């Protein structure tokens, strides 16, 4: 069964959206997200570099900070895979992305402080 690409409601037809409102909202948000992808990638790369630096120093604290940086990046810019968006809808996939970002921050705190 197909689901609306924006809200995730089940569809009985071959359309991709349940309403014109969902389609317009989806198109506007996708355009905004395309501009933010570069910042997402910079945050992930920065977190990875900090984590790699912590590995070379053998410092759990710095490794944890790198993981936290990536978690903050995912919370602020919760991009998910196209498969997740297709399965859940755009809005729900953003919520799942933020939850996973919070879990990543918790893992970073655990690695850095424990």
From TrEMBL:
Transmembrane regions listed in the UniProt entry: 37-55, 61-79, 95-113
Entry keyword Membrane: yes
Keyword terms, alphabetized: Membrane, Transmembrane, Transmembrane helix
Top-rank taxon, per record: Bacteria
Keyword Transmembrane among UniProt keywords: yes
The protein's name: DUF2116 family Zn-ribbon domain-containing protein
Organism: Dorea acetigenes
């Amino acid at each position: 069964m197909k689901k609306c690409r924006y809200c995730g409601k089940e569809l009985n037809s071959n359309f991709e959206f349940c309403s014109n409102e969902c389609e317009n909202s989806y198109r506007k948000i996708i355009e905004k997200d395309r501009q933010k992808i570069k910042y997402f990638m910079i945050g992930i790369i920065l977190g990875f570099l900090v984590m790699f630096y912590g590995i070379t120093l053998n410092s759990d604290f710095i490794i944890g900070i790198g993981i936290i940086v990536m978690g903050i990046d995912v919370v602020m810019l919760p991009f998910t895979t196209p498969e997740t968006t297709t399965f859940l809808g755009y809005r729900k996939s953003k919520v799942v992305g933020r939850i996973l970002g919070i879990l990543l921050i918790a893992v970073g705190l655990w690695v850095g402080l424990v």
